[in-house]
Amino acid sequence: MGAVEKPRTGVAAPSAWEYASAPESREIVAFEKRYGLFIGGDHVSPRSRSWFTTLSPSTEEPLAEVAQGGPKDVALAVDAAREAFRTWSRRKPSERAKVLFRIARVLQERARELAVAESLDGGKPIKESRDVDLPLAAAHFFYYAGWADKLEYAFPGRRPRPLGVAAQIVPWNFPLLMLSWKIAPALACGNTVVLKPAETTPLTALLFADVCRQAEVPPGVVNVVTGDGATGAHLVRERGIDKVAFTGSTEVGKAIQRELAGRDVSLTLELGGKAANVVFEDCALDQAVEGIVNGIYFNQGHVCCAGSRLLVQESIHDQLVRKLKRRMATLRVGDPLDKNTDVGAINSSAQLERISELVQSGVDEGAELYQPPCRLPEKGWWFAPAVFTNVAQSHRIAREEIFGPVLSVLTFRTPDEAVEKANNTMYGLSAGVWTEKGSRILWMADRLRSGVVWGNTFNRFDPSSPFGGYKESGFGREGGRHGLEAYLRFE
Amino acid sequence: MSQTLALPRALELPGGGRLPRLGAVDAVALEGRAADLAKRSIKRESKLFALELAIRMIDLTTLEGADTPGKVRALSVKAIRPDPGDAAVPPVAAVCVYPTLVGVARRTVAGSGVKVASVATAFPSGQSAREVKLADVRSAVEAGADEVDMVIDRGAFLSGRIAQVYDEIVAVKEACGDAHLKVILETGELGTYDAVRRASLVAIAGGADFIKTSTGKVSPAATLPVTLCMLEVIRDVHDETGLVVGMKPAGGIRTAKQAIQYLCLLHETLGVDWLTPDRFRLGASSLLNDLLLQLRKQRTGIYRSPDEFTVD
Amino acid sequence: MSTRLPVRKTYKLYIGGSFPRSESGRTLELEGHNVARASRKDARDAVVAARKAVAPWSGATAYNRGQVLYRLAETMETRTDALAAVSSGRREVARAIDRVVWYAGWADKLAQVLGSSNPVAGPYFNFTIPEPTGVVAVIAADEPPLDALVSRVVPALVGGNAVVAVASEAHPLAAIELAEAIATSDVPPGVVNVLTGLRTELAPVLAAHMDVNAIDVTGADGDAATLESLAAENVKRVVRAKEDRSPWEIAAFMELKTVWHPIGR
Questions:
Q1: Are 3 or more Cβ–Cβ pairs between C and B shorter than 8 Å?
Q2: C or N terminus of chain A, fewer CB within 10 Å?
Q3: What letter does residue B101 receive in the DSSP assignment?
Q4: Residue of B253, B246, B243 lying closest to B231 (CA atoms)
Q5: Among A293, A271, A96, A323, which Cα is nearest to A189's?
Q6: Helix H or strand E encompassing B31
Q7: Would you give the distance in Å from CA B127 to the centre of its chain?
Q8: Among A155, A419, A443, A484, the residue to mutate for chain C (most C Cβ within 10 A)
Q9: Residue B92 phi/psi, 5° resolution?
Q10: Which residues contact C263 (CB under 8 A, 6 or more apart)?
């Protein structure tokens, strides 16, 4: 019978098949040279008279100048929001709903333009901003639009009322999507907002101001104050706010919680994570590999709920790692606007430094590093996908959030040990469980101390699905009926 | 906790080596991955390469009750020279016909390098006695078929008689002699990807040179997810044993765009070594003209008309 | 220059996404027009079309259904004048459109309000989810001409049901105008079917039809008891409007499924 392979006549395989670049056109988006602050429905120059430049992390090219909001600017924005709250909160809820439905529609209509802007400003692949960020952003507005006039059904026995002015600070990893997670429920509940986008990714928030214009959002209901961490601090210190919603690092989250102590300001926090992706020997192996890869390399690992710790059952460790490394080698790292790019640029040089430092610590502490060969562009900030094997719980790379495309692989023997190791962290945002046994997924879900558990999947988000953390990953939930609570008080 | 394949005890893989674990396939994740790979955007040089490769991978097929020598002759001429207006367009890999027409095909393609593949084993249903099926195979081989495309006994498979399915493949492989064996799983009838994975392993264990999705007579025929599932089995077998098994999606691939999606799937699952007609075929008929049309469009930059290409 | 003769609309039935005449060829003169007089065979065809549409419509994501219904509100909005001309006026049309928007927003929230995860006394994960009942017959009330129909059809649609509606005899034109808005929206063919004609001929056929899962008798007036009796033959769910707008109006057209699964290593 046939030996390893019968010789055949025919054409030999090529040595490589390079995909030619398939760039999404940049022309669809036109940035202003300079963006003022969006306050009270107008674009205004900052009282601080201070500006800074936002760069494209894949090329280091400057994209636009944006304002550095100072304390006076923040105060003006909060005043505008307070003023607008008087009418907005009294408007018929079904009319508020219609405004939100309109925002959803405009986001769908301008999806491509916003996706390109997002990829340029933040560095993520166009494939993701186009297929994940934008559709989910529109969906969030759509979902919460529907709640605006149905709040009495969301909380049996309670009478919901808006809080007032919500100060919202969002991070640079999913700028427009995080904006949607914040603004949609806030507005649906009758609040007005002052949003501070991240320092390195202000542009889609500023374009969102134009979406508000098209949707005829009343002036002052949505205000955008750009700036760095100091601007965020001013905003949190402002006396006129009723609520703070923050997504970002645990360190800053703690600072905000300290600042708000003793003040009558409602708070929700969505902070960092060090999620365990637990893979049992009876998993669907190739699909588990996909889930692991998606879990840590999606969005360059700039994901709070990233599956940064792979806990694999020891009996399949070698086979899984082999498959994983081979799969990593097919990841395409490069120009975010290339439709075939899987992994984009690191968001900033500061973040690249943090990642590099932690990776070095992994090497120093004795873990084994693998990175597939990658041709990285000359300019811009890049990090080839990395995986560490022989990692111990005590290694820094197993305890600290890296927020980059770096996976740490640890092993376990039994479900109990998996639970113990997965929970052995100050964080508690998310976890993944891979097994073909349904009862085990539910058993693990029962015991994992994390706000989100993904069974045989990872990084799935939906506006109807509540998201948020346990422990130092924060408190409060975004999405779903539960996500309304953050923006209401109850008489 | 890994499951062993329900095969007769004295199982040997051609060339030795242990069969990979049966395992499971998560349908949602598999389909998600296939959909992601289908989004690859292939442009310019890489597209030209892919179109030309796809043409060389085609098993140009006619399997109709109404097939006549005239029809098969015309098909075979097209197989040798797909685009009469462009001699640079290569011939396809093979023509695929019923056993009674193998002779006609053989005489027409003689000397061109195009292979003759024949279906057999009571294609497409496989619902005949073992002897009849083996005689069918022999008739094709005697008529000069280079390749035999058999169907597995789905009735036996779906009622749990896996050993019977396996034995039949072994017997057919023997009857093939030097002819290459493609084993058609008829994935559209198997119901789950887990079953497709199991059937693939049984076929490979039985001696398949190629595993093939469909007869083209049942819907759904080839799909990207089912192809991915089968390619993953081939990858596991290759990892465990070094054995090289080819794959052929058949039926339902009508456009160049789809063909390129299949090639992306292949490339990213098994790598560049599998980008050859020796390891991958496309079972199709109308696909060829769309490939020719797209090839000419890529070369000239102008959208073409189907009228520019001969029907056979 | 003589005045221009307008091209008058022909009012036909709406079945399976198309506008056929009655297979019986009959018409009735209602509201100044020849309106199709649907027969029992048309009703039968409508049920077949609805049944065929149930699987894809209920299988769509709730988000998708919500978006489709919102788009229906869009197409109704652009037809405001046409709808106002055959109903009590623009106020009613605005109310009907806003009702569609209101219900559209429920699609992706129903499971959260109508469903539950249940804390059973044992190591089992137990959850209850609402599912559409299937094909729903709606006997439309006479007033208000447009909103009465919308107020019963849309709650049935939100959860994933397909509907066969018997238009009011007093106001068939509003029903067909609505059907045109539906036909130009993204509502798939067969999800909504509208029969114009005599209620006394059509309602009993649907009430007795063995492949109809629920019947809304809000508009049946004095005939409700007869219809309820006929409905018993296949244990049809008999539904009546209770509130003007409420998720419980949607729930009336839904089944509840409870699933158990062990929790264990």
A1: no
A2: C
A3: G
A4: B246
A5: A96
A6: helix B27-38
A7: 21
A8: A443
A9: -80, 180
A10: A439, A442, A443, A446, C123, C124, C125
Coil vs helix vs strand at A407: strand
Q: CB-CB: which of A22, A284, A290 is closest to B24?
A: A284
Whether the full predicted model's pTM is greater than 0.95, yes or no, is no
How does pLDDT run across A326-337, given as a tens digit for each residue? 999 999 999 999
Domain ranges of chain C: 12-262
Which residue among the candidates A189, A283, A304, A305 is catalytic per the annotation?
A: A304
Residues of A in contact with B42 (CB under 8 A): 19-20, 22
C12-262: what fold? Aldehyde Dehydrogenase; Chain A, domain 1 (3.40.605)
Mean pLDDT of chain C: 97
Distance CA A11, CA A206 (A): 55
Mean pLDDT of B68-76: 97
Using the Cβ of A446 and the Cβ atoms of chain C, whether some distance falls under 8 Å is answered with yes
What is d(CA B115, CA C196) in angstroms, rounded to the nearest whole number?
Answer: 64
- Find, in chain A, the residue whose alpha carbon is nearest to that of C104: A146
- Beta-carbon-side half-sphere exposure of residue C16 (alpha carbons within 13 Å): 12
- Check: CB of residue A221 under 8 Å from CB of residue A192: yes
Q: CA of A127 to nearest chain B CA: how many angstroms apart?
A: 9
Name the token pair of A319. 């086979």
Distance CA B264, CA B258 (A): 10
The Cα–Cα gap between A205 and A118 comes to 10
Are A481 and C109 within 8 A, CB to CB? Answer: yes
- Chain C: give the shortest CA distance to residue A192, in Å: 21
The answer to whether C108 and C159 are in contact (CB under 8 A) is no
Q: Is C81 exposed, middle or buried (0-12, 13-18, 19+ CB in 10 A)?
A: exposed
Please give the backbone phi and psi of residue B146, each rounded to the nearest 5 degrees, phi first. -80, -30
Q: What is the rounded distance in angstroms from the CA atom of residue B122 to the CA atom of residue B125?
A: 6
Task: Report chain A's C-alpha Rg in angstroms.
Answer: 23
DSSP, collapsed to helix, strand or coil, labels residue A410 as strand
Give me C227's structure tokens: 């219809």
Record the tokens describing residue C131, joined without a space.
């599912």
Encoded tokens for A54: 């936002």
The partner residue sitting opposite A456, judged by closest CB among B2, B26, B279, is: B26
Cβ(A245)–Cβ(A168) below 8 Å: yes
What does each C-alpha distance from C83 to A472, C96, C148, C173, C175 come to in angstroms? 56, 10, 13, 9, 9
User: How far is Cα A247 from Cα A473, in angstroms, rounded to an integer?
Assistant: 10
- Please report, as a single letter, which amino acid is at residue B186: E
CB pairs under 8 A between A and C: 71
Neighbour order of strands in the sheet with C124-132 = C116-117, C124-132, C254-262
Chains that touch C (3 or more CB pairs under 8 A): A
- Predicted confidence (pLDDT) per residue in A367-425, tens digit: 999 999 988 999 999 999 999 999 999 999 999 999 999 999 999 999 999 999 999 99
ipTM of the complex: 0.91
